[in-house]
Amino acid sequence: MFKKNSDEIPTTHSDVQSTSHPDSNDEAQMLKKNLSRIKNKIVVLSGKGGVGKSTVAVNLASAFASRGLKTGLLDIDIHGPSVPKLLGLEGSKIATSVSGMLLPVETADGIRVMSIGFLLENSDSAVIWRGPLKYGVIKQFLKDVTWGELDVLIFDSPPGTGDEPLSVCQLIEKPTGAIIVTTPQDVAIADVRKSINFCHQLNMPVLGVVENMSGFICPHCGKETPIFKTGGGEAMAHEMGVPFLGKVPLDPTLVQNGDDGKPFAISNSETSASYQAFLKILDKISKEIKL
């Protein structure tokens, strides 16, 4: 639990200590019990930073919640947590229950959210940790947070195939699958291929690839301009034999909603091309995992 002792989550460099130790049987049982109440666990991955992975994770969580599904969102990007900003939850703090369990922050549309961002002194605080500490906090977020009964828990991972996504896959044992986010250009796709191979090596199903920032649709004339090209993610998905979920175009409304902390499902942006793209992607995911 998050207490003022050697087990507390450190938030500055001077607080960092090694926490590498094997899980006890009691901890393993607590983790298993907590996770057993979550029907689907979806990990959002990307081998490349800056492709809009957190935006995809947040908007999919909001879309799930808008359909009446009990939804959770766990931000495991320890060094660059974006979820609090994207959901308008900056400044929120974590509370504890009578039993000492952590209570997730809940959005207006009912998404249960946990992020290291809620535990930092301020949004500019740097988290300077190595692998064992990151594993430890992710384990605590899974074991010690009162997630309750959920239809789906979405994990927003940092870019790459390092400690955070590996820790999640080891701790939850049988994830429902991964959603891979890329942009269309070759420099992004080259790294995103690694994320797909990461899933294959860990026997984690790939639910599909999302091609984000795929063309820009002019709000004035409706003409599409392929600023970052288009179709690269779709071609890569077909080549690697994994499902393609859809394309999300560049959209100024999507950018503004992110800065305002208002995901599409609660922002009255139904006419936006990006909004419609997310709904189609959600339909494919829901069909795949039978939600």
Textual characterization of the structure:
This protein has 291 residues and is α/β, with parallel strands linked by helices. The chain has one domain: P-loop containing nucleotide triphosphate hydrolases (Rossmann fold, 3-Layer(aba) Sandwich). The chain is 35% helix and 20% strand. Strands 1, 2, 5, 6, 7, 8, 9, 10 and 11 form a 9-stranded mixed sheet that branches. Helix 4 (131-143) runs parallel beside helix 5 and helix 6 runs parallel beside helix 7. The longest helix has 17 residues, at 273-289.
Structural class: alpha/beta
CATH superfamily, please? P-loop containing nucleotide triphosphate hydrolases
Give the topology string: H per helix, E per strand.
Answer: HEHEHEEEEHEHEHEEHEHH
Q: Please, how many domains?
A: 1
Work out the radius of gyration. Answer: 19 Å
In percent terms, what proportion of residues is strand? 15-25%
Low-confidence stretches: 1-21
User: What global shape is seen?
Assistant: globular
What features would you highlight for this structure?
single chain, 291 residues, nine-stranded mixed sheet, two-stranded antiparallel ribbon, disordered N terminus
Task: Produce a short descriptive summary.
The chain has 291 residues and is an alpha/beta fold. The longest helix has 17 residues.
Write the layout of secondary structure elements.
Elements: H1 25-35, E1 38-45, H2 53-66, E2 71-75, H3 83-86, E3 95-96, E4 102-103, E5 105-106, E6 112-115, H4 131-143, E7 150-156, H5 163-172, E8 177-182, H6 186-201, E9 206-217, E10 224-225, H7 232-240, E11 244-250, H8 252-260, H9 273-289
Parallel strand pairs: 1-7, 1-8, 2-6, 2-7, 8-9, 9-11
Antiparallel strand pairs: 3-4, 5-6, 9-10
Helix pairs in contact: 4-5, 6-7
